Amino acid sequence: MGGMKMDQDSTKDKLKGKGNKLKGEAKDTWGEITGDAEKQAEGKMDKLKGEAQDSVGSAKDRLSRK
Predict the structure, then answer these.
(1) Burial of 37 (0-12, 13-18, 19+ CB in 10 A)
(2) What does 1-66 look like in DSSP terms, one character per residue?
(3) Angle between helices 3-34 and 37-64 (to 10 degrees)
(4) Which pLDDT score, from 0 to 100, does residue 35 have?
(5) Confidence tier at 33 by pLDDT (50, 70, 90)
(6) What residue spans define the domains of the chain?
(7) What is the per-residue pLDDT for 1?
(8) How many other C-beta atoms lie within 10 A of the C-beta of residue 57?
(9) Are 55 and 1 in contact (CB under 8 A)?
(10) Per-residue pLDDT at 65 exceeds 90
(11) Which end of the chain is more exposed for a tag (fewer CB within 10 A), N or C?
(12) Ramachandran category for residue 35: left, alpha or beta (phi over 0 → left; psi -120 to 50 → alpha)
């Protein structure tokens, strides 16, 4: 895989991760405010998904620099 493609992929993963973390934070907070445990759980799952995507992006960055 080329270095430039890997950099683009890692950036895309990181951006998706940040988006999911923000979405998750909003859902988590909304669920907490409204007492909606299901929405709060969805938010926590979205945050975890975002953290995983961010980690994948960081791993791709490290691989492309080797």
Answers:
(1) exposed
(2) --HHHHHHHHHHHHHHHHHHHHHHHHHHHHHHHHT-HHHHHHHHHHHHHHHHHHHHHHHHHHHHT-
(3) 160
(4) 98
(5) very high
(6) 3-64
(7) 46
(8) 19
(9) no
(10) no
(11) C
(12) left
- In the block, which residue shows the tokens 């890997």? 6
Q: What is the CA radius of gyration of the chain?
A: 15
Query: In the structure encoding, which two tokens stand for residue 52, read together?
Result: 């995983």
Query: Token pair for residue 49?
Result: 């998904």
| Residue labelled with tokens 């940040």 | 18
Identity of the residue numbered 9:
D
- Written as one letter, the residue type at 62 is R
